[in-house]
Write a structure and sequence with these properties.
Length: 331
């Protein structure tokens, strides 16, 4: 009897000792939370579904927040933050406090959506930092778009306005044809990607779409036939020239000249240049043969009744003159 009591006392002492020495390792013990390290950086990122990311929050100046996304397919993504001044970094992995360098994408917000780039299937981490001097409230969202490959250069012949990813296969106009060089000299691409004469830059004419050229002999003949038959859509055969852009230095200032109008004894000719009004019907055909104030004067158009008949004898008119190297006023 005494022997059994002694064994029971020893067993109870062993159990009490075990509980005292192992309590800190109990998963349910309060002491266990104290020993767990606090998650920071990308390890503390909240995981979101790509299709449902939209929330409102705020960040102090210089503060950052991390978000994680699990993507199941390749897509083009856009980050939208309704405040400018946020710096975004996208990583394809998480290494401790920081994402796995280098960043896949590095971008700044502008208050609108920022098309960041293409991502494939996988887990991604996004760090957003407030670079502004004060605390900012903002709305955050992500949108996914299907990838449409194509030419994104609007100067190209095959420009695709629906494309959101460039395929590197843009095709541009060939301005080195014999037709262009023989009739217009050296050529270049204008603001809209069309072939334009180099000599038209800074020549005193404002080329903002007011004038055009014939792109081929066939186009010239079609234009003439259209005018002679009273067609209403003859401009379709003309290439409109636009030099009003920063790439062409805004036509070297030609479009900045203040139009003070013509004098009392002057009129605007077929190309809007000032010409003496008494040149109309004076017996000389003003089809560019004569100049006034440094400009060739054209009065051989329907507006002036073909220079009041002066050009009828020669059979000349602005629209049907046999040389295409002059400017064509867009009707």
């Amino acid at each position: 009897m005494l022997k059994n009591i002694f064994k029971l006392m020893i067993l109870m002492m062993f159990v009490m000792f075990g509980l005292q020495s192992c309590g800190g390792n109990d998963p349910l013990s309060p002491g266990d939370d104290d020993n767990e390290p606090e998650l920071v950086g990308c390890e503390a990122a909240n995981l979101y579904d790509w299709d449902s990311v939209e929330f409102e929050t705020s960040l102090d100046a210089g503060a950052s927040t991390w978000l994680a996304f699990d993507l199941t397919e390749t897509t083009l993504f856009t980050v939208s933050i309704n405040q400018a001044g946020f710096h975004g970094l996208m990583f394809d992995g998480c290494d401790g406090e920081f994402g796995t360098p280098p960043a896949l994408y590095d971008f700044q917000t502008n208050g609108n959506g920022v098309e960041v780039g293409i991502v494939t299937e996988g887990l991604y981490y996004l760090k957003v930092t407030n670079t502004r001097p004060g605390r900012l409230d903002f709305t955050f969202s992500i949108s996914l778009d299907d990838i449409v490959y194509g030419c994104m250069d609007d100067d190209a012949i095959n420009y695709d306005e629906t494309a959101n990813v460039a395929d590197g296969n843009c095709t541009f106009n060939d301005c080195n044809t014999d037709w262009y060089t023989d009739n217009y000299g050296d050529m270049m691409l204008d603001c809209d990607g069309n072939c334009a004469p180099v000599l038209w830059i800074g020549d005193g004419y404002c080329d903002d779409g007011a004038y055009g050229i014939y792109p081929s002999e066939e186009a010239y003949n079609n234009y003439v036939d259209c005018l002679n038959t009273g067609g209403e859509e003859c401009n379709q055969y003309i290439v409109v020239i636009n030099l009003w852009c920063i790439e062409q230095n805004f036509d070297e200032g030609d479009c900045e000249v203040i139009d003070e109008g013509c004098g009392e004894t002057e009129i605007e000719d077929c190309n809007d240049n000032c010409a003496p009004s008494n040149w109309l019907g004076d017996g000389a055909c003003d089809d560019g043969t004569y100049s006034y104030n440094g400009n060739q004067i054209f009065l051989d158009c329907a507006e002036f009744n073909n220079d009041e008949g002066d050009c009828d004898v020669l059979g000349r008119t602005t629209e049907t003159r046999p040389y295409p190297n002059g400017r064509i006023k867009i009707q």
